[in-house]
């Protein structure tokens, strides 16, 4: 794999859990896509005058080791496979020690920049991709999620039918858009992060406190995401975020998040997440008490998917 990005973690990029917030992991991954595009022979793919670009259709993300303020990070990338107009890319963000911090499998399409019309890769890019061919290592493979092809079910009407919890709403702001005027890719996950407490509540479940000891400081974190980018809103477009529980076990909850247009009803994005409770002092995953598991099971939405 070849280096496609380098940087670090700013204090203002960290959240109440004390580590790099998911929106900034994803924002850095989109920079990595641009860096890898340059290595493939498309150095101006994300400039305003570009005739062709890459549009992200899907992401699989695994968070492997948290990154806290001041940490240095390096991202490498390669090409897993390439079709006629699409490709699966692999990006890995590592700590300076070399330890993987997060991995991203990113499905992109080679498209016209104005109307996102897919068209074939030129021979020169295919040749460059052959030189950057990689395989997916075990740490970047799907673990708790199924990456099989799926027909998205998200829509505003379906969200109302399933009575999914509204965790956010508003309109896309100009500052949230890229040079083409479309919503930047990290804004979906960012909006989910902003509103998810409406689904989970202010605190996350953890072990009962031991007699004589102070209650444990429990937060939450995501281990794994599958994200589908179904359409790209522009500044002023309305958005509504709806979420629900799809599964629970002793350590994780499986959650679905949809970003939909409440005006037209069409879906913008959908995501499936594997969520944990996280001891903020010990910095480790903790079990979900049986009573809390049962409470979550009572909230499951049968048949809920992407």
What this model shows, in words?
With 306 residues, the chain is an alpha+beta fold. 18% of the residues lie in helices and 35% in strands. The chain contains six helices and eleven strands. It has helices at residues 22-39, 123-131, 156-162, 186-195, 197-200, 290-297, and strands at 2-8, 52-63, 72-82, 86-95, 100-112, 165-171, 218-229, 238-248, 252-260, 267-279, 284-286. Strands 1, 2, 3, 4, 5, 6, 7, 8, 9, 10 and 11 form an eleven-stranded antiparallel β-sheet that branches. A hairpin with a 4-residue loop joins β10 (267-279) and β11 (284-286). α1 (22-39) packs antiparallel against α4 (186-195). The two termini are 31 Å apart.
Question: Can you give me a brief rundown of this structure?
Answer:
It is built from 6 helices and 11 strands.
- Uncertain runs with pLDDT below 50, 5 residues or more? none
Annotation, overall tally of beta strands: 11
Helical percentage: 10-25%
Order of helices and strands: EHEEEEHHEHHEEEEEH
Between the first and last Cα atoms, what is the distance in angstroms? 31 Å
Helix count from the secondary structure assignment = 6
**Structural class of the helices, strands and pairings?**
alpha+beta
C-alpha Rg (nearest Å) = 20 Å
What's the shape?
globular
Q: Beta-strand level of the residues, as a percent range?
A: 35-45%
Give the biggest beta sheet. 11 strands, antiparallel
């Amino acid at each position: 794999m070849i280096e496609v990005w380098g940087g670090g973690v700013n204090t203002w990029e960290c959240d109440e859990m004390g580590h790099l917030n998911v929106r900034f992991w994803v924002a850095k991954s989109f920079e990595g896509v641009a860096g890898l595009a340059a290595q493939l022979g498309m150095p101006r793919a994300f400039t305003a005058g570009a005739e062709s670009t890459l549009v992200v259709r899907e992401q699989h993300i695994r968070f492997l080791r948290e990154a806290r303020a001041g940490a240095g990070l390096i991202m490498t990338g390669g090409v897993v496979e390439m079709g006629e107009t699409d490709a699966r890319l692999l990006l890995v963000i590592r700590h300076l020690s070399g330890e993987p911090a997060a991995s991203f499998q990113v499905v992109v399409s080679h498209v016209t920049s104005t109307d996102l019309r897919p068209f074939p890769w030129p021979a020169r890019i295919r040749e460059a991709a052959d030189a950057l061919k990689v395989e997916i290592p075990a740490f970047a493979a799907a673990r708790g999620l199924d990456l099989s092809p799926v027909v998205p079910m998200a829509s505003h009407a379906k969200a109302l039918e399933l009575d999914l919890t509204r965790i956010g709403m508003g309109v896309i702001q100009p500052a949230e858009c890229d040079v083409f005027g479309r919503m930047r890719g990290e804004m979906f996950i960012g909006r989910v992060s902003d509103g998810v407490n409406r689904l989970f509540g202010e605190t996350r479940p953890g072990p009962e406190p031991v007699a004589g000891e102070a209650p444990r400081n429990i937060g939450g974190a995501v281990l794994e995401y599958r994200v589908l980018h179904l359409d790209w809103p522009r500044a002023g477009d309305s958005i509504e975020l709806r979420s629900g529980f799809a599964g629970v076990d002793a350590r994780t909850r499986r959650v679905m998040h949809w970003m939909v247009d409440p005006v037209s009803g069409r879906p913008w994005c959908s995501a499936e997440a594997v969520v944990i409770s996280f001891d903020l002092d010990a910095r480790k995953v903790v079990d979900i008490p049986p009573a809390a598991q049962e409470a979550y099971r009572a909230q499951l939405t049968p048949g809920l998917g992407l």
